[in-house]
Design goal:
The complex is a heterodimer of chains A (130) and B (225).
Chain A: E1 8-9, E2 14-19, E3 22-27, H1 29-35, E4 40-42, E5 49-50, E6 55-60, E7 64-69, E8 74-79, H2 82-85, H3 89-92, E9 101-104, H4 117-128
Antiparallel strand pairs in A: 1-2, 2-3, 3-9, 4-6, 5-8, 6-7, 8-9
Chain B: E1 3-12, H1 14-30, E2 34-42, E3 46-49, H2 62-67, E4 71-74, E5 81-84, E6 88-94, H3 104-121, E7 135-137, E8 140-150, E9 153-161, H4 185-189, H5 195-210, E10 213-219
Parallel strand pairs in B: 1-2, 1-10, 3-4
Antiparallel strand pairs in B: 2-6, 3-5, 6-9, 7-8, 8-9
Chain lengths: 130, 225
């Protein structure tokens, strides 16, 4: 399971990269693997404001639909348009070309609630127990 | 070990079943030691469209829908158009999919496997098709799968044609396949099978496949206990 050191993670299996007041968001390797091959990604409109925990993206595999949530509150400043025609990028490169959206979050409240890579790895290990 | 609590709703309209599922999703998201399996038949009948489904997949006229008492609902599940109604077993498992090495695609496979094992108990051979979700008997579809996941908790699920009137599927383009053939257990067996009989087999098979303990069975109205 690939868990890059330089990212933060949520319990819903999103990853976040903060740089210059912008949070770039995608789903983790665990999430893309557990969900399966994506066939459809519904991106949010630019400039839309989200509160932490809101559903930002609807995604579908062959027969399942799921959501991606805002890890922090903020306004959408960019979306990964390539996912419209090629949602499989999320499966092939979830931390790179499969990024999903960027939120302007100059003072991201809730940042402390996110996990670092070691914390997320421990969280995943805990989930293996049923 | 996770305990599977079964909830039997002899018949239930689509909206009420969805409300119950949403309550259970919130409950499982807060406490994942339990999992739920709702078993019901939808009455009145309902045509549902998945998020990507198009209203052009509904072939029936508004008058035909009204005459047959069929509701139409947009649904947050995966997949396109399908029909539910009396005589069809609908199973909605509500459980955490990021626990215990489960997965979303594994959950879809488990639903199909539970249908296959249920059919086998009635000496029917079902099969999967590559690249598609659902179960076929011969060349006709006998069960449809469409799952939704909210905060990694599943809802919606699988619908197995037991003894329903198959002509209702003529009102839609089932799962985006124009003229796609459908069948039922009763049609395949050449004798009437009841949803009740099939529900027990399905619940046992599903619990077994998931490795869950079979917990109590609750009836309508006991969910808040």
């Amino acid at each position: 399971m690939n868990i890059p050191d330089d990212l933060n993670y949520t319990e819903q299996h999103e990853w976040v990269r903060f740089a210059d007041g912008v949070a770039t968001v995608g789903i983790s390797d665990f999430a893309q693997d557990a969900f399966g091959d994506l066939v459809f990604v519904d991106l949010p409109p630019l400039d839309k404001e989200f509160v932490r925990g809101d559903e930002v993206i609807a995604m579908e595999s062959t027969k399942a639909a799921a959501s991606v949530y805002a890890p922090v509150s903020g306004k959408v400043v960019e979306v990964n348009e390539r996912l419209v025609d090629d949602p499989g990028l999320v499966n092939s490169d979830c931390y790179g070309e499969g990024w999903m959206f960027k939120l302007a979050a100059p003072d991201p409240a809730g940042l402390d609630d996110l996990m670092d890579a070691a914390g997320y790895e421990a969280f995943l290990t805990g989930l293996e127990e049923d | 070990m996770t305990t599977l609590i079964r909830i039997d709703l002899p018949t239930c309209d689509y909206d009420s079943a969805l409300r119950l599922q949403r309550r259970l999703v919130a409950r499982v998201a807060a406490d994942d030691t339990a999992a739920y399996l709702i078993l019901t038949e939808h009455d009145p009948p309902v045509i549902t469209l998945g998020r990507r489904g198009s209203s052009s997949d509904i072939l029936a006229s508004p008058q035909q829908l009204a005459d047959s008492g069929t509701e139409v609902r947009r649904s947050g599940r995966g997949g396109l158009a399908t029909w539910h109604g009396p005589g069809q077993l609908v199973a909605y498992p509500v459980l955490r999919l990021d626990r215990g090495r489960r997965s979303v695609h594994g959950h879809v496979r488990n639903l199909e496997e539970a249908v296959l094992q249920t059919l086998a108990r009635f000496d029917l051979a079902g099969r999967r098709r590559d690249g598609e979700a659902g179960v076929w008997a011969g060349d006709a579809k006998i069960a449809s799968v469409g799952v939704a996941v909210q905060r990694w908790v599943s809802f919606h699920g699988v619908a197995l044609n037991v003894c329903n009137d198959l002509s209702a599927f003529e009102m839609i383009v089932p799962c985006g396949r124009p003229g796609g053939a459908v069948t039922s257990m009763t049609e395949m067996l050449g004798r009437e099978v009841s949803v009740e009989d099939v529900a027990d087999s399905f619940a046992e098979a599903f619990a077994d496949i998931c490795g869950f303990d079979e917990g109590p069975t609750l009836a309508d109205g006991e969910m808040d206990a």
